[in-house]
Recover the amino acids of this structure.
């Protein structure tokens, strides 16, 4: 998984609680991304970062916030988890912007269940 | 709206047989097309990436083709192995698109039976 770790790998939480997922990379890549993957949908971009403290919204950003205080770490926060946020979350990295020809490398994923 | 459609949704073949997965897209302007393999419980892993000028690209037993005129791509797997059981995802990039310029297909779930 190209030097990318995600934590936790599995989490069960209750509706209304805050949740933070962590992505850590050892590749020193500039771009980092958070996606969610749900049955019947392709991977959908939540937020991405193009540098320390530089982030932008993706297709499905409502209910999520992110922070990147160091090159190697990208945090995804669900301020108040809802059942619709039950999903598998993937972190990805790339050297340049994702729509270019650089490969995106994905982490192992975090399975989040919101009861 | 940019779209990527993959077919079939799922496919079961016997070990040793060949198969072809399809990807049709309406992404414009086109930049590149990627195929990823995703094993159960793992993140996607890149197999190939093709730009507008490339018609064919191989990676071992995987061969991807691209017809930019008809906006179609295929992924051919030769002499399938049990380890090929996975989901295969087609991803198309829009030229000039930023980090959110990628459109993901829903994937084809391939099962190889012994």
């Amino acid at each position: 998984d190209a030097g990318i770790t995600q934590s936790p790998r599995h989490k069960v939480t209750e509706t209304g609680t805050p949740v933070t997922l962590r992505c850590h990379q050892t590749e020193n890549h500039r771009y980092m991304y958070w996606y969610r993957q749900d049955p019947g949908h392709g991977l959908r971009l939540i937020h991405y970062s193009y540098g320390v403290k530089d982030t932008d919204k993706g297709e499905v950003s409502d209910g999520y916030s992110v922070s990147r205080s160091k090159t190697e770490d990208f945090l995804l926060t669900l301020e108040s988890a809802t059942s619709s946020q039950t999903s598998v979350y993937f972190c990805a990295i790339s050297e340049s912007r994702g729509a270019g020809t650089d490969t995106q490398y994905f982490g192992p994923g975090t399975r989040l269940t919101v009861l | 709206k940019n779209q990527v459609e993959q077919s079939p949704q799922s496919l079961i073949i016997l070990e040793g047989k060949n198969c072809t997965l399809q990807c049709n897209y309406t992404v414009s302007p086109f930049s590149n097309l990627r195929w990823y393999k995703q094993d159960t419980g793992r993140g996607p892993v890149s197999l190939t990436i093709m730009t507008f000028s490339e018609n064919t690209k191989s990676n071992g037993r995987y061969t991807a083709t691209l017809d930019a005129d008809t906006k179609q791509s295929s992924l051919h797997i030769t002499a399938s192995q049990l380890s090929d059981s996975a989901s295969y995802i087609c991803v198309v990039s829009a030229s000039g698109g930023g980090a959110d310029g990628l459109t993901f297909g829903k994937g084809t779930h391939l099962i190889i039976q012994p």
Q: What stands out?
A: The interface with chain A takes residues 4, 31-32, 34, 41-46, 49, 51, 89, 93-107 of chain B (CB under 8 Å).
